[in-house]
Amino acid sequence: MNATLRRVRALASKDLVDLFKNPTMFVVLLMPIGFMLLFRLVLGDASPSAGLTGSELDTANHEIAKYLLGSGLCMAVGMAVSMVLIYGIAEEKEKHTLRTLMLANVSAGEVAISKGVVALASVVCVSTACFFIAGGAPALLPAYLVLTVLGSVPIILVSLVLGLASRDQMTAGFYSVPVLLVALVPSFSVVNKTIQTVAAVTPLGGVYNLLGLAADGTLFTPEALMPLAITLAWIVVGSAAFAALYRRLARDN
């Protein structure tokens, strides 16, 4: 067990250094923060000039803040995970780094854990920055981070599988686009009821709705059961897919 922990720690350190050394990956991690700054600038806050006063104005600002928080979470998870995992694994395949690790008696599980931990840490850092840019209440931060981690798990598991399936970085680019688009679907749920219904059953749809409930102070109510069940179902699906395919790392094709 100690040897495994040492190897995972060493791999995570290497992956973290590689993350900052790769300018493309580092810039993509900054993109959600940049988009949040843009959204905050464009949307701003509701003003009395819009004909809203009193409680209506407060409600409008609250809804804007909820949208920004949910969008920031979706962008942080979608962009950070797809880049760190899918591109990261594909790059190591191209450079035959994985083959070297396997010959050094590093297991596929240790590689996957290392990359998953680095991806999760990246998401937490990026989403925290997005939270404060969106103007989230400090009291909401713990729930926001817990939901970020919960929503990241299925995306991380699916991205690990897609990373294993990627032969090179070009293939990784093709695979990462669907992950990003699926992660962003909940952000468009405000458009109409149809998109809202579809978004609710996506991997981040449950977490997006749970975050809205947390912002409204109704997280611990029966309304949270359905989005929580959807999120847990995606974790189970992602775990099953990962368990079936992660051993492909050992072959390093």
- Cα-to-Cα separation, first versus last residue: 28 Å
Radius of gyration equals 19 Å
Look at the structure and give the mean pLDDT: 84
Measured as a percent range, the helix fraction is: over 70%
General shape:
globular
Going by helix content, strand content and strand pairing, the class is mainly alpha
User: Got a strand count?
Assistant: 0
Which blocks of ≥5 consecutive residues have pLDDT under 50? Answer: 46-50
Report the sheet-strand fraction: under 5%
Contiguous helical run count: 11
- Listing every helix as H and every strand as E from the N terminus to the C terminus, the arrangement reads HHHHHHHHHHH
Note the main sheet. Answer: none
